[in-house]
């Protein structure tokens, strides 16, 4: 007999998103920007909040599209890139369809896949967390997944994918009909992007977010770039008026300061490289990063003990040490210069 007091089958594997929100003076755990966003306070006062927002989010999508020389009908916007991923998987995933992912990677890719009833083909990255192009292509040829998810640069390991990887995958997708999804949440901190590969002819979509370099994690805005035929199908699945007027307006306003956001991203990159240098003098193994965070593994102490001692010093970072493939690893988000100094000094004391 069905037990209708239980959630539907398949949801138990999804689990809850686990990342403790603990009060701390220095919060370097969620890959947010430590810098306030560059938005005028008057934006909200000018809105007619008694009215529904523009359902098509036309002005916002045009402003996003113009950053990439694309058109508004090649942009889908939603409440954070998590909602982008969810709407994409509701549209193109589901029963009898599979998504190929490469672990360790951003955990919500497989969680949202499970929630939408999409089966997950979970393959492992190399020891250094890179992806071997030949191995990836062999697996795609063998499994022919409906969807392939890359995350470049990858969270939580930090490196970008090689230039040839998406090109080789797209070549394979000429032999059967699947879609390549690339999550570029940290693209503003990276040396390269795959956005130039987007065209009406290729089954490629790329997600981005205002939560990282734009300093607007609290706003909840992410977007997907891709061919208009694909964006149109995703639009059809999203709820009417899903993107509020405040979100649309604040983001349009923020995009007037593109140059300042790029300067802030440069500051974060400089700080990231300074933390990486400091980690070289400590008993840790650290991985190269093209993001606003660094993955590292203490070599002379238990990682969770290090995490707990940092919390006791009011420094919060992220403990990944019990996740398969990330045993013993911690991840620190780049903060302000002062926050980073507090983190480095605290870690020095703990590992001494
Ligand atoms: C790789 C990656 N994608 C997507 C997201 C979701 O971001 P948001 O929903 O805030 O846009 C995150 C958040 O940490 C992430 O690391």
How is the topology of this model organized?
Elements: E1 26-27, H1 58-68, E2 75-78, H2 81-92, E3 98-103, H3 107-115, E4 119-124, H4 133-143, E5 147-151, H5 164-172, E6 179-183, E7 204-209, E8 222-225, H6 228-237, H7 245-254, H8 258-279, E9 284-286, E10 293-298, H9 303-312, E11 315-316, E12 318-319, E13 330-333, H10 337-351
Parallel strand pairs: 1-11, 3-4, 3-5, 5-6, 6-7
Antiparallel strand pairs: 2-8, 7-8, 9-10, 10-13, 12-13
Helix pairs in contact: 1-7, 2-3, 2-6, 4-5
Short structural description:
With about 350 residues, this protein is of the alpha/beta class.
Question: Please, could you describe this protein's structure?
Answer:
- This protein has 352 residues and is of the alpha/beta class.
- It is 34% helix and 16% strand.
- The mean pLDDT is 95.
- The site of pyridoxal-5'-phosphate (PLP) has 13 residues, from helix 2.
The first-to-last residue Cα distance is: 59 Å
- The CATH homologous superfamily of the largest domain is named Type I PLP-dependent aspartate aminotransferase-like (Major domain)
Largest sheet: 7 strands, mixed
Q: What's the helix-strand series? A: EHEHEHEHEHEEEHHHEEHEEEH
CATH class of the largest domain: Alpha Beta
Low-confidence stretches: none
CATH architecture field of the largest domain: 3-Layer(aba) Sandwich
Tell me the β content.
15-25%
Briefly note the CATH topology name of the largest domain.
Aspartate Aminotransferase, domain 2
Question: What number of domains?
Answer: 2
Tell me which ligands are bound: pyridoxal-5'-phosphate
The geometry reads as globular
């Amino acid at each position: 007999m069905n037990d209708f007091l239980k959630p539907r089958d398949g949801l138990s594997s999804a689990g809850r998103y686990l990342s403790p929100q603990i009060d701390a003076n220095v919060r370097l755990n969620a890959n947010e920007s430590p810098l306030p966003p560059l938005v005028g306070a008057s934006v909200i006062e000018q809105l007619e909040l008694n009215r529904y927002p523009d359902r098509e989010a036309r002005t916002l999508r045009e402003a996003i599209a113009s950053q990439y020389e694309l058109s508004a009908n090649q942009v889908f916007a939603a409440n954070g890139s998590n909602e982008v991923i969810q709407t994409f998987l509701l549209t193109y995933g589901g029963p009898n369809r599979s998504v190929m992912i490469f672990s360790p990677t951003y955990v919500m890719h497989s969680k949202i896949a499970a929630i939408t009833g999409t089966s997950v083909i979970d393959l492992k990255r190399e020891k250094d967390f890179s992806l071997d192009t030949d191995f990836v292509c062999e697996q795609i040829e063998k499994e022919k997944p409906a969807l392939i998810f890359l995350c470049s640069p990858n969270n939580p390991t930090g490196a970008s994918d090689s230039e040839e990887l998406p090109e080789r995958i797209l070549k394979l997708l000429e032999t059967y009909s699947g879609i390549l999804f690339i999550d570029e949440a940290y693209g503003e901190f990276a040396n390269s992007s795959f956005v130039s590969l987007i065209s009406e002819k290729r089954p490629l979509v790329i997600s981005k977010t205002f939560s990282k370099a734009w300093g607007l994690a609290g706003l909840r805005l992410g977007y997907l770039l891709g061919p208009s035929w694909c964006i149109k199908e995703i639009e059809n699945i999203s709820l009417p008026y899903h993107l509020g007027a405040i979100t649309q307006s604040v983001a349009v306003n923020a995009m007037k300061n593109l140059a300042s956001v790029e300067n802030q991203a440069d500051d974060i990159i400089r700080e990231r490289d300074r933390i990486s240098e400091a980690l070289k003098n400590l008993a840790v193994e650290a991985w190269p990063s093209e993001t606003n965070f660094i993955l590292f593994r203490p070599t002379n102490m238990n990682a969770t003990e290090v995490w707990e001692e940092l919390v006791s010093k009011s420094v919060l970072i992220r403990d990944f040490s019990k996740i398969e493939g990330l045993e013993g690893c911690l991840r620190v988000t780049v903060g302000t210069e002062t926050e980073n100094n507090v983190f480095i000094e605290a870690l020095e004391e703990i590992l001494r």
